[in-house]
């Protein structure tokens, strides 16, 4: 049911933006941003459930929480980067959008350093 609401909000907003864009392009852009943030809100509840499920799995198998937190940070960076990038593309600012994506990618690399370090240490310990 929630998926149908999201689709309907997207379709109605798209129609409104198409009608308004030629008369008030600034207002149309604001409407795009507000709608994007509102639709992003719909993923918060399912995302919370996924986080709880992953935490229970990690604790059940006694996996270090550092890895789980790192995965959550990477996913969060990816989603927020995508949202910011798409909003700037909607505004017609492709050059800024590409810079946002670059910062997101570098941030993901930086956050993933503990996992990369653990993988390298594991490989080194396995070698004779």
Automatic annotation (TrEMBL):
The keyword Membrane applies. Keywords: Membrane, Transmembrane, Transmembrane helix. InterPro entries: Spore_III_AC/AD, Spore_III_AD. It comes from the Bacteria. The chain crosses the membrane at residues 7-23, 29-54, 66-86, 106-127. It holds the Pfam family SpoIIIAC. NCBIfam families: spore_III_AD. This is Stage III sporulation protein AD. It comes from Amphibacillus xylanus (strain ATCC 51415 / DSM 6626 / JCM 7361 / LMG 17667 / NBRC 15112 / Ep01). The lineage of its organism: Bacteria, Bacillati, Bacillota, Bacilli, Bacillales.
